Amino acid sequence: xxxxxxxxxxxxxxxxxxxxxxxxxxxxxxxxxxxxxxxxxxxxxxxxxxxxxxxxxxxxxxxxxxxxxxxxxxxxxxxxxxxxxxxxxxxxxxxxxxxxxxxxxxxxxxxxxxxxxxxxxxxxxxxxxxxx
Amino acid sequence: xxxxxxxxxxxxxxxxxxxxxxxxxxxxxxxxxxxxxxxxxxxxxxxxxxxxxxxxxxxxxxxxxxxxxxxxxxxxxxxxxxxxxxxxxxxxxxxxxxxxxxxxxxxxxxxxxxxxxxxxxxxxxxxxxxxx
Lengths: 132, 132
Description:
The structure is a homodimer of 132-residue chains. By secondary structure, chain A is mainly beta. Chain A is built from two helices and eight strands; from the N terminus they run αββαββββββ. The first copy, chain A, has helices at residues 3-11, 45-54, and strands at 25-31, 37-43, 58-61, 66-69, 78-85, 91-98, 115-120, 123-128. The termini of chain A are far apart. Strand 7 (115-120) of chain A pairs antiparallel with strand 5 (78-85) of chain B, so a sheet runs across the interface.
């Protein structure tokens, strides 16, 4: 992008989220206290609206194709501490406070990123991240 | 997802990245030292392969539709400290060490997430994040 439109998008103060062709915008959620990256998920316009209106994270579940109020069943409610948008307004960063047991992953772990990718024999393998 | 396939994907040690229909996987890059979220971008299979092979972050630029070795022109090379995959293997987390001036955003800022979204009059406005 270049020119006036890009400049407004990047330096202006109008919130103009750019959803992809499938109507979604990606959002990374981090623990507001520790800064740890918890998860990465998508929002459609409704999920974003509900998040802004309620202060509680809502996502769009691509696998279940439905609006998803995070923690609705698990208790791992994510309360918004701060929501940010990136330079070209096609990604969001949510700093959240997590309810329930403080975890974010449906596998029971604190974060969804519990495995490290390591190169091996021309391919790649996963190994567990310590302490997760 | 459920059953054996999901279990292998989530608990196994085979790296099986799940690219979306457009051949991309999303990746969040954080500063390995400070933990700060720097940017969010996409990789296609080639970008991921090159990242694993070289230890330097490569992305797929959706706007320019080309492979993008981050920092190639700016000097803001991102050296991989650790690469992780999430539970269902459709998102990556890169902990990186940044070259050049240490920044990641093409606007000159350290992070692409330099504006906060705030609710206002039934809509939303952006305000600058302090110190960025």
